[in-house]
Amino acid sequence: MKDSFAELNKSPDEILLIIFKNLDNCHILYSFLGVNQRLTKIVHDFLFTNHLTLFKHSSSDIISRLSDSMLDRFCSEISPKINDKINWLDIEISSVQRILLVRNYRNLFGLGLYNIETENDVQFLKEDTFIERFQNQISSFVVKCIDQQETSKTVNTK
Known about the structure:
The protein is α/β, with parallel strands linked by helices. The chain has 9 helices and 6 strands; from the N terminus they run H-H-H-H-H-E-E-H-E-H-E-H-H-E-E. Strands 2-1-3-4-5-6 form a 6-stranded mixed beta sheet. Strand 3, helix 7 and strand 4 (110-116) form a beta-alpha-beta unit.
């Protein structure tokens, strides 16, 4: 593994960008942010920080939450370093409070919420805390329920 990293680290930035563009942004940040100064600079690029999908998506179209260790690292280490660069977040509903309500994403304009299943999930979206926090910020909102029917709504907040 050490030799693999040494070879990766010798690759030109352009090659790394080509490789990273074919990977999931969340996993790129999780795997390379903080490894060394060069890789941290590359993964801080707008290309990898502006739209994050914070859930697992299987080939059979099943969405599940990220592991606790990934969520912990995202919330404690990654998000504080890039939260001003994030424009869009796609989040699995069970992770919303942990990811969305603990940090100010001041440049966030798009939000996707996935795996909404119960009345409690819907009720959470109606709560004053959620509505007040994002009513003048979010201009695009996507909701995907557990039955896989997608509903998209563009919200005009101006």
